[in-house]
Amino acid sequence: MGTKIIGLTGGIGSGKSTMANYFESLGVPVYIADEEAKKILYLPDAVNEVREVFGEEVFTEQLPDRAKLAKVVFNNPDKLKQLNQIIHPKVRDHFTNWVTLHKSQNFVIKEAAILFESGSYKDCYKIILVTAPKGLRIKRVMERDKITKEQVLERMSNQWDEKKKEELSDYIIYNTNLEAAKNKAREIFLELNKM
Question: Is 14 known to sit in a ligand binding site?
Answer without folding.
Answer: yes
